[in-house]
Amino acid sequence: MINKEKHITRRGYTLCFLSKLQDSLRRRDVYVTGSNRWGDPRARLLQGADWQANRIKVYRSLGHPTDPQEAIKSLGHQLDSRYRQVAARLCENEAVELDVSGPKPRLTISPLASLDEPDSLKRLSKMISDLLPPVDLTELLLEINAHTGFADEFFHASEASARVDDLPVSISAVLMAEACNIGLEPLIRSNVPALTRHRLNWTKANYLRAETITSANARLVDFQATLPLAQIWGGGEVASADGMRFVTPVRTINAGPNRKYFGNNRGITWYNFVSDQYSGFHGIVIPGTLRDSIFVLEGLLEQETGLNQPKL
């Protein structure tokens, strides 16, 4: 950055500035005004009179006391209790070892031994499989739409009221082509108006967007939450989040480098949120391998389903 004359070079200073700016953005030390991903999340919070008018309602909806010191005291007691429970069991737990031979202590937890499937579980699996009839995936989508009406969430990009005959058939075909990554060609039927090449291309261009897919998924999640079987699994108040990494075959601003996972290529992390009712209620594309904890709050707050603010 400094030349032989001990002057700061413009090129070196620019590269250094951009590198530090990138690090600061990732650490959330610097925010970009108006940006959804890099903006200050505190700017979206209620402020001033709006917060005072809705404060009690927000506290009650989240189950928190109005006095912050009371909440901190309760959390402190819970943390202290958990620490004492773990410490009391640590010496007797043979699956946990504390290695102090290195420069820093290292905790080692032995993996759980795999259990053989009992015969009763094998019989149950076969019984359930026999109950599932062989059905074409596109027919399955149409049947699910008949129960949930998720295809109604797909509306025209410029003419919201524009509808055509058998639009759910076209939408199901386009969704199948995108989900299976097979393209539209295998689904084209020139003798079926809803499956002609022109209709499928028109449907994909005007109806398949991130906002419509998100709305359709929210309707599916809300419908599943009403099923008795899903309510046995859970109440929709607990969720898990995990990321899957993919190499991107094309150049895109949504990809990032990481030699460990992507080699010399660039890739993304698909961060998926799943409720305790086994429904995927939100997903975020993360460039490269940015720290996923940055996006946890975004996923919980921006999901559009009727789930009651699930906890991770």
Topology diagram in text:
Elements: H1 10-26, H2 48-62, H3 68-90, E1 96-99, E2 106-109, H4 119-131, H5 137-148, H6 167-180, H7 197-207, H8 210-225, H9 228-233, E3 239-247, E4 256-257, H10 259-262, E5 266-275, E6 280-287, H11 293-302
Antiparallel strand pairs: 1-2, 3-5, 4-5, 5-6
Pfam families: DDE_Tnp_Tn3 (PF01526)
Protein name: Transposase (Identified by ISEscan HMM)
Domain Tn3 transposase DDE: 139-308
Note the run of SSEs as H and E: HHHEEHHHHHHEEHEEH
- Estimated helix fraction: 40-55%
User: Distance N terminus to C terminus?
Assistant: 45 Å
Structural class: alpha+beta
Parts with pLDDT < 50 across at least 5 consecutive residues = none
Shape: globular
Describe the largest sheet: 4 strands, antiparallel
Instruction: Count up the domains.
Output: 4
Radius of gyration: 26 Å
Count of helical stretches: 11
The total count of strands amounts to 6
Protein name: Transposase (Identified by ISEscan HMM)
Domain Tn3 transposase DDE: 139-308
Pfam families: DDE_Tnp_Tn3
Organism: Klebsiella pneumoniae
